[in-house]
Design brief:
The complex is a heterotrimer of chains A (342), B (256) and C (335).
Chain A lengths: L19 H14 L3 H17 L6 H26 L7 H17 L5 H24 L5 H20 L9 H4 L4 E4 L2 E4 H19 L1 H11 L1 H6 L4 H27 L10 H11 L11 H21 L3 H26 L1
Antiparallel strand pairs in A: 1-2
Helix pairs in contact in A: 2-13, 3-8, 3-11, 3-12, 3-13, 4-5, 4-6, 4-11, 5-6, 5-11, 8-9, 8-11, 9-11, 12-13, 13-14
Chain B lengths: L4 E10 L2 E11 L4 E6 L5 H9 L6 E6 L2 E2 L5 H6 L2 E4 L11 H5 L9 H5 L6 H14 L16 H15 L3 E5 L7 H16 L4 E4 L3 H7 L2 E6 L2 E6 L6 H9 L11
Helix pairs in contact in B: 6-7
Chain C lengths: L9 H17 L13 E6 L5 H17 L2 E6 L6 H13 L4 E4 L8 H9 L3 E5 L11 E4 L2 H16 L6 E5 L5 H14 L8 E6 L4 H14 L5 E4 L2 H13 L7 E6 L2 H8 L5 E5 L1 H16 L7 E4 L2 E5 L11 H6 L4
Parallel strand pairs in C: 1-2, 1-3, 3-4, 4-5, 5-11, 6-7, 6-8, 8-9, 9-10
Antiparallel strand pairs in C: 10-12
Classes of the chains: A mainly alpha (342), B alpha/beta (256), C alpha/beta (335).
Protein name (chain C): Sugar ABC transporter substrate-binding protein
GO molecular function, one term (chain C): carbohydrate binding
Subcellular location (chain C): Cell envelope
Chain lengths: 342, 256, 335
């Protein structure tokens, strides 16, 4: 169920349910089962912990920094979430994004293409990769894991061939604009952070309030049922992968804004990082369950832990260690919830 | 009374195997027609042909006397034929209303619906609620996830969905196969409710007692052909089984 | 009220216990005790796992303790992981460090981040690898990789003399400065140029043992007569040795390498590697820390390049070529 609708007025038949206390218990259980509660609690707990541990954590500037640091992986996670909701997985997203950034930056710097057009071409290239993923998953009926493992390697190789292993520097303003900041009160906020948040909002709306969003959940939940009830599953899946690809292109633009270079080495662990955010966000890897809002929290959890531990002076391996433990906890919770349902 | 859905001389071959060998079929308005037959008699192939899940090699299908050609389940659905499958074709994580309207969601009127594709959740909920009550399916809230329901209730949702959108025919393919005794009884009641609403029902079942209990007529399929159409009052179960297994002759002849 | 550590209320006490636990686990003890009168230094290496950087971190930690300052460390997750280094720079800047020591993973891509930190008044020092351009950092403490290459090139030439050689070059990765400098240094020292017919095979190994072995196997397929192998580092050299051994060519082929890690020096002792050029990561880090502390306490900010030294280590010294023996190499090795 995308989010919960338990607050909606229930039909009159609800009156014949037995026992008020059982109702209350059910309400609590249902609240705890809302997929965003766990990730939000974890995020708030982490923030509380770091606020008490270091006085540099809870400042506008630092929090803005955290959001800015997760904007690339967070945006990738938007695409990853939609794919995972259909019970697929996308291993290629980091590599596709890296290829997109190299296409954008090389076209704009060495290729005499106006920067805005270069950006569009980069995003379209990423969308095309997504379409290939979607096409192979639906037409050739290959598992998404295998398909995207293939396109991961293809995108990686193309990135290195096309970039000649060279980092692209001296980018025009239009390409790095999203890395610029604007003042909000006394805090500088990065435009790219806003772009990421807007993307999350749009994805939330589509998944929660439109038929297409419902079909995404239905396809991940029971593809056969979705097909039999008239959902065009092929078209839906191809659309999902293609849109995800375009979102990866945008993530690439955000990355370029943040680092102000086109880096052929970028994004090598981003596929797993985005999956981490999705899992921490309470979305089931089995598909059909979870909320995109939780994924935003999931991405922020990773960013907060990395930033907070760094401020405390804890070495970076321990940030990775803690993230690993959290992932296993999150998947364990999902597994338990599944077992209880069956 | 002229048949609402009929088929003549359907043939379907899979390599050397002939699943349908000139099968005929006839469904009259307002009736529950049961289709029985041994494994391999071609029951499910026949039903798949009628519901658009496969295209027969030969033969004709007529709906309301007009020939129809289904190339997909969606074609059949558009023609007003809905199918309920044995394996509970619902999305467990979605709520009841979402399942009822899956693939046929209702959007808000005006710009919100047209441009922003905003769903009219409230309307779907209330229509689902009215519809479920109409079929006497006692389920609390339409915003409840289907996975919180029992197997019988889930099948109730699937039946309700078909009944809600079928204009001509509801096909039920082994709707009780996955259910316990009590829940089967619930679904059988539902089948009757659907007929009460004027929709003819094709019921495919292995469960001979249930078939004799609920059906108006019984189509007996054997070796890819219809070998008999009987009324539950005309023969007893043993005789029906005998026809099914070929121990007794049928009452229809093949039209070649 | 600003305070770094919470007063022990019931909640914060358990939280404090958690912090203590984390720090104990971290085993670095660098974070908690507020020593160093507000001087904090950041160290960002390419990875956490390579023994070279482990040694570098050790050097920085030792020196920071001696000088009574706080050290923060971070690393990328793989060689070339620019994004993680950028993030670490931002976080360290937010943490209020005085100076940052960094081994750039991507020499060009890191430049804008270095500029940002320097704009905030942070002393940015590159260790081991110069950024591109080198002026993007305040100063550089590194091995002269060209010299390192030249040392082993000269050594090889002095052993081989005028004999005809067939050379395999097991390089790092395309476009990485360190690799290019070592490669060029070796050729200069040996007295040949790129494209010389004696160079019969050139392969990239990423400085990895398994890839080094594969590269050598492929080179031997191409030309079984290879008798001199230049390797970018000792893991690549050991991989090459394995391949040569399998081909039965260890007796007639000489391997030279660069780095001076303990495993590498032991391989020199065992005769698997003829000679290696040893560099000193511990020294780089220690000198870097010193430089920042001196500046933060009112001294002059270091600039330009400081050579942290390199020595030729071999068990079979050649007349007229300065070298150190294996005992020296083992006493000063890292890893």
């Amino acid at each position: 169920m995308p989010e919960t609708t338990s607050t909606e007025p229930s039909g009159p038949a609800v009156a014949d349910r037995a026992g008020r206390s059982r109702d209350a218990a059910a309400a609590v259980a249902r609240f705890a089962a809302v997929p965003t509660v766990g990730p939000l609690a974890a995020l708030l707990l982490a923030c509380l912990f770091f606020s008490l541990s270091t006085d540099r954590f809870l400042t506008g500037g630092n929090l803005s920094l955290v959001v800015q640091q997760v904007m690339e992986v967070g945006t990738l996670a938007v695409g990853q979430t939609v794919v995972i909701l259909t019970a697929g997985i996308d291993l290629s997203n980091g590599a596709v994004m890296a290829f997109g950034t190299i296409v954008m930056t090389r076209l704009a710097v060495g290729g005499d293409v106006p920067a805005p057009l270069a950006i569009v071409i980069g995003v379209v290239v990423c969308a095309a990769f997504g379409a290939v993923n979607g096409g192979l998953v639906t037409m050739a009926r290959l598992p998404s894991f295998i398909v995207t493992l293939g396109t991961l390697n293809i995108a990686f190789a193309l990135t290195h061939i096309y970039s000649h292993e060279q980092t692209v520097t001296g980018l025009p303003k239009a390409l790095t604009a999203l890395g610029e900041t604007f003042p909000l009160g006394d805090t500088d906020v990065t435009y790219g952070s806003v772009v990421m948040l807007v993307l999350f909002a749009v994805a939330w709306y589509v998944l929660r309030f439109t038929a297409a969003g419902r079909h995404v959940y239905a396809v991940g939940d029971n593809p056969e049922a979705a097909r039999l009830t008239g959902v065009s599953t092929r078209r839906l899946l191809i659309t999902v992968y293609t849109v995800a690809g375009a979102v990866y292109g945008l993530a690439g633009l955000l990355l370029v804004g943040r680092t102000t270079v086109g880096d052929p080495q970028a994004g090598q662990t981003d596929n797993l990082d985005s999956i981490t955010a999705v899992v921490l966000g309470g979305v089931s890897l089995f598909g059909g369950r979870g909320s995109i809002v939780g994924v935003l929290f999931g991405a922020l959890i990773v960013g907060v832990i990395r930033n907070g531990l760094q401020l405390m002076g804890v070495a970076s391996v321990y940030q990775v260690l803690i993230t690993g433990i959290l992932v296993i906890l999150a998947v364990g919770v999902d597994r338990l919830a599944r077992r209880r349902r069956q | 009374m002229s048949p609402i859905l009929e088929a003549h001389g359907l043939v379907k071959r899979y390599g050397h195997v002939t699943a349908l060998d000139g099968a005929d079929f006839e469904l009259l308005p307002g009736e529950i027609l049961a289709v029985i037959g041994d494994n391999g008699a071609g029951k499910s192939t026949l039903i798949k042909a009628l519901s658009g899940a496969l295209v027969p090699d030969e033969g004709r299908i007529l709906l309301d006397g007009r020939p129809v050609h289904f190339h997909s389940p969606a074609d059949a659905r558009r023609a007003g034929i809905e199918t309920v499958y044995q394996d509970l074709a619902v999305a467990p994580a979605l709520d009841i209303a979402a399942n009822l309207f899956l693939g046929r969601e209702v959007r808000r009127k005006g710009v919100l619906g047209k441009v922003f594709r905003l769903l009219d959740t409230r309307r779907m909920q209330s229509e689902a609620d009215a519809h479920m009550r109409d079929l006497k399916i006692g389920i609390g809230s339409m915003s409840q996830a289907v996975e919180t329901l029992s197997g019988g209730q889930r099948q109730g949702v699937a039946v309700a969905r078909s009944a809600a959108f079928a204009r001509h025919v509801v096909i039920m393919d082994e709707p009780t196969a996955a259910l316990g005794v009590k829940e089967s009884g619930m679904v059988v009641d539902l089948i009757r409710e659907v007929r009460e609403r004027g929709l003819p029902v094709i019921l495919i079942s292995h469960d001979i007692p249930t078939v004799f209990d609920v059906a108006d007529r019984i189509h007996i399929q054997r070796l890819g052909r219809r070998v008999a159409v009987v009324g539950p009052g005309d023969v007893d179960m043993a005789e029906a089984v005998a026809i099914m297994t070929g121990a007794a002759p049928g009452n229809t002849t093949r039209r070649d | 009220m600003k305070r770094r550590f919470p007063a022990p209320g019931p909640l914060s006490r358990s939280l404090a216990a958690l912090v203590a636990l984390t720090l104990a686990a971290a085993g670095c003890g660098s974070g908690a005790k507020g020593s160093g009168k507000d001087i904090t230094i950041g160290l960002i290496t390419k990875t956490d796992t390579n023994p070279f950087f482990v040694k570098m971190k050790e050097g920085a930690e030792k020196e920071a303790k001696a000088k009574g300052v706080k050290l923060m460390t971070a690393a990328g997750r793989f060689d070339g992981d620019n994004a993680s280094q950028v993030t670490a720079m931002e976080n360290m800047t937010a943490a209020g460090v005085k100076g940052i020591l960094i081994v750039p993973s991507d020499t060009k891509a890191i430049v804008p981040s270095l500029a940002k930190a320097r704009a905030k008044g942070i002393d940015v020092i590159a260790l081991d690898t110069p950024p591109d351009p080198q002026s993007a950092a305040d100063s550089l403490f590194a091995t002269n990789n060209l010299t390192a290459g030249t040392l082993i090139g000269r050594y090889a030439k002095s052993v081989e003399g005028a004999k005809p050689v067939r050379i395999a070059m097991l390089d790092l990765n395309p476009g990485i400065t360190v690799g290019v400098l070592r490669h060029n240094g070796f050729l200069q020292g040996y007295g040949v140029k790129d494209g010389d017919p004696s160079i019969v095979c050139t392969q990239y190994t990423a400085g990895d043992q398994a890839k080094g072995q594969t590269a050598m196997e492929n080179c031997l397929q191409k030309d079984p007569g290879i008798n001199l192998v230049y390797t970018i580092n000792e893991p690549a050299a050991l991989g090459a040795y394995t391949a040569l051994k399998a081909a039965g060519r260890t007796g007639s082929t000489m391997i030279v390498s660069i780095d001076g890690g303990c495993t590498g020096v032991k391989a020199v002792q065992a005769g698997q590697i003829a000679a290696t050029a040893q560099q000193y990561p511990l020294k780089m880090a220690a000198q870097g820390v010193d430089s920042i502390v001196a500046w933060a306490r009112g001294g002059k900010k270091a600039s330009g390049y400081t050579d942290t030294g390199v020595n030729l280590i071999t068990a079979k010294p050649q007349a007229g070529l300065a070298s150190k023996d294996v005992a020296f190499g083992l006493a000063n090795c890292w890893g």
